[in-house]
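User: For my dataset I need records formatted as: sequence, then structure tokens, nothing else. Please produce one.
Assistant:
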Amino acid sequence: MGTLGDPLLDLATLLSYWAEEGDHPAMLALRQMPTAAPGFPKRVEVMALYARASGLSLERFSYYRMMALFKLCVVFRQLYLRHRVAGFRGAPAVGLPALVDGLIDFSSHALFTERF
């Protein structure tokens, strides 16, 4: 996903789906990207590569990171509500409440521990 606007928000959005070994189980359960598999760079390595290639400063990247994680929580909460309103009770919808709670927990933890 890309937007017209601040490219650091695009990077943060990419990294909000970027799961790593040791992340909260909800992040690993997303399975949006295979980045937790061996051979993929860590988020901080991707950030360093991006900063070097773009010449942009990541001094205030934590702001973008938290905004993107918040958006991720909102997206999956919205998916859950859509399934609930539509009456969908299939396997994907069953795990959404726990997934959303886990993403909120991961985001809260990241807010107080991650420093870029």
